[in-house]
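Hello support,

Our group uses your service weekly, and this is the first time we've seen a run hang past the timeout. The protein is Diaminobutyrate--2-oxoglutarate transaminase. I'm not sure whether the cause is the sequence or the server load. Input pasted verbatim:
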Amino acid sequence: MTFAHSNQDVFETLESEVRSYLRDWPAIFDRAAGSRLYDENGRPYLDFFAGAGALNYGHNNPVLKRALLDYLDKDGVTHALDMSTVAKRTFLETFREIVLEPRELPYKVMFPGPAGTNAVEAALKLARKVKGRESVVFFTNAFHGMSLGSLAVTGNAFKRAGAGVPLVHATPMPFDDPLEDRAAGFSWLERLLEGGGSGLDTPAAVIVEAVQGEGGINVARAEWLRDLAELCRRSDMLLIVDDIQMGCGRTGAFFSFEESGVTPDIVTLSKSISGYGLPMALTLFRPELDVWEPGEHNGTFRGFNPAFVTATAALEEYWRDGGLEKQTLARGEEIGQALDAVAAEGPARAPGIRGRGLAWGVEFADTSRASRVRTRAFELGLLLETSGPDGEVAKLFPPLTVSDEELEEGIALFARAVRETESSSRTPRR
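Update from on-call engineer: The timeout came from a worker crash unrelated to the input. Re-ran successfully.
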């Protein structure tokens, strides 16, 4: 199949080699609405990438767009650092009323900067300040961001190597494996914590994702998370849950840890908290941990008021009742069943299908297969990315607002891409 791509010269000659997504999807996108992106030639692409989780409510969601345009039209404050504004007050009141109070979560809210890695850096810094210790435990295949502190608790070797300096004060432990006894992963850590000769100083905190996104859609069992929370309590370590990619309803409930019944000491949010793809991040923590001095951790863009406006609109529109959560869980069941059917098609069988809500991954034994599926899917008009330590997992991340018809269409396109890459891989090369 041949595509008439527009001129890419300026991207290839002027933009840094660090660019990545545009290499996989060689189109020049011009507009977007709902679950679809359109290139400058008008060709539509069904988006099962959703801004890596930043577009849970779709592109240019009309309710959020109207709120944003009305705010800008009345010359609402755009940039305010951490000054008090009407937009920030309205967001905080709405977040407390719709998210925190119904879940009996006691958190204080911190605006650390506009990106997820800012929220993680603030969480790590606060944990170390509160406990007076340096080390933090993280888990294999974790991803927490690209700044140095976040990279130190990230498992991916390629991303860690980009730091250029030693990444210290962090200790890796195995993430939950559903094929193993859930206590097995903690027994080694407990022995290290209790053994006077282990050489491991008591960490300040443990940081974990309830569902690892970049690590390959690895879903931690609720029992495993509860065991981890109990270990943290016994060992005087803070529990940090990174909900940057899986929060804001991606797994069904607003927070990905809700199913486990755990209340983390610190939670990080970003991605879809603004609802519109605007930069925004939160670090949430128990009130007794709020030991910051004024200005001790700050940032120029921690008060981006347009994001407060769209975040408030998203909470009002989608989280005053349980409708979106129920819909996401139901559609997650549909995706799981559909992917099982794809895997059952003989030679197209994949060894691992896993997910929750609208976050799903299909792992292939041939580590190059997922990237071939991604390429073929793009050619067919479907955007999806890969994840996992070797890019061996095809990752399906549709907007939470995807229609039934769009979900069916996306699964069909994915199934076709899987079948056709299997056929091409068995065709002898000339």
